[in-house]
Design goal:
Largest sheet: 5 strands, mixed
Oligomer: single chain
CATH class: Alpha Beta
CATH superfamily: Gcn5-related N-acetyltransferase (GNAT)
CATH architecture: 3-Layer(aba) Sandwich
Number of domains: 1
CATH topology: Aminopeptidase
Number of strands: 5
Helix content: 25-40%
Strand order of the largest sheet: 1-2-3-4-5
Distance between the termini: 36 Å
């Protein structure tokens, strides 16, 4: 398996994978997300170029097997750690034909390696139920946090 860093040329692929995640775990219809793919593609294209979105693409036998990314955002430095950036893992997706073969774990390892080298303060994510054990095995823990959703959906 080859894992490579995504470029702005991969923005549409990442947007398509994000839509697939929302369809699988977000209870959205494909037709409702089709217009959103263009919005996400434009966002990812710019964010990949400016470094606020760092994605990874997994390929096996010349075919895309999955992808995942981290959205980097400003954060207040923590005591003893001068970094002013944290990350949120986004849209880890594995093609159904490549699941349970270590693809998600490999993508996450690249994300973790990047996060450490970039000295991000922390990584957060919103896991699907089937993925919770993978993230726990990688060291993620439940956090004491609440959210108020202001956008529809």
């Amino acid at each position: 398996m080859l894992i490579r860093r995504a470029t702005s040329d991969d923005a549409e692929l990442l947007a398509t994978h994000r839509a697939a995640v929302w369809i699988e775990v977000g209870d959205w219809a494909r037709a409702d997300l089709e217009p959103q793919v263009a919005v996400w593609t434009a966002f990812f294209s710019g964010a990949l170029r400016n470094g606020t979105y760092v994605g990874f693409i997994a390929e096996r036998d010349g075919r895309v097997a999955g992808s995942g990314a981290v959205l980097i955002h400003a954060s207040i430095p923590r005591p003893g750690f001068a970094s002013d950036r944290a990350g949120r893992v986004q849209s880890v997706y594995v093609d159904p034909n490549a699941r349970h073969q270590g693809v998600a774990r490999a993508i996450m390892q690249y994300i973790l390696d990047f996060a450490r080298s970039a000295q991000l303060i922390s990584l957060s994510l919103h896991p699907s139920d089937p993925a919770r054990s993978l993230y726990a095995a990688l060291g993620f823990e439940a956090a004491d946090e609440m959210t108020l959703r202001l956008a529809p959906g």
